[in-house]
Every structure is written in C-alpha cells, then in structure tokens.
Amino acid sequence: MSQEDNGPASDDKAVPDELTLAEFAAEFLRRNPDYQQDFQSLAEQEARPDVAAALARRWGLRFRPGPGATHSAGPADLAN
Q1: In a domain, 3, yes or no
Q2: % residues pLDDT > 90 (the chain)
Q3: How many Cα neighbours within 13 Å face the side chain of 17?
Q4: Is residue 28 part of a domain?
Q5: Which domain holds residue 25?
Q6: In the structure, what pLDDT confidence band is assigned to residue 59 with cuts at 50, 70 and 90?
Q7: Cβ-count burial of 27 within 10 angstroms (0-12 exposed, 13-18 middle, 19+ buried)?
Q8: How crowded is the C-beta side of 64, counted as CA atoms within 13 Å?
Q9: Of 20, 36, 56, 68, which has fewest CB within 10 angstroms of its CB?
C-alpha cells in the first residue's frame, strides 16, 4: 500500500502497512477509550504496583527495560 493510494499520512492516521506489530498495538491502545479510561484512572492514583499490574494483565502489556535502566521494567513503571 503506498502513500499515493491512501493519501498523505498524518499524525492521527497512521498507515497500517508501515507499522510494526508493537506500533500497531500501541496505536490501538492509544485510540481505545476503555484503555484511556483505565490509564487515566491509574495516573490519578498514588503509585500502586498492584493496580498497575492489573492494568498490564487486562491489556496484555509487557515491558522491556529501556536503555540505561537500573532495574527490570515491569507494570509498576506505569504508575511512575
């Protein structure tokens, strides 16, 4: 699928053929109102690893440590 076939890509409309699986999954979650509500609820609470872990399980999230990380990444990182 080319850009000509679909018109220009914008920030709000990513071209699916140009996304990796991880990027597609992130875009799905970003646009999903139920996920947005869950994430907002988590962000408004005091950091609680158990709540972050429940959100990660519900949405099938997995974490990798970023460059220079001093600990293993996990669901609790959502709460930070």
Answers
A1: no
A2: 22
A3: 6
A4: yes
A5: 16-63+70-79
A6: very high
A7: middle
A8: 3
A9: 68
Instruction: Report residue 6 as tokens.
Output: 């679909």
Half-sphere exposure of 65 (CA within 13 A, CB side): 6
Q: Which two tokens stand for residue 46?
A: 């005091």
Residue 6 lies in a domain: no
What token pair was written down for 77?
Answer: 């990182």
- Burial of residue 25 (CB within 10 Å: 0-12, 13-18, 19+) is middle
Task: Measure the CA–CA gap between 63 and 57, rounded to whole angstroms.
Answer: 11
If you average pLDDT over residues 53-77, what whole number do you get?
74
Rounded to 5°, angle at Cα 32 from 59 and 26: 60
Q: Is residue 9 part of a domain?
A: no
Instruction: Give the SS3 label for residue 10.
Output: strand
DSSP 53-67: HHHHHHHT----PPT
User: Which sign, positive or negative, has the C-alpha torsion 4, 18, 29, 59?
Assistant: positive
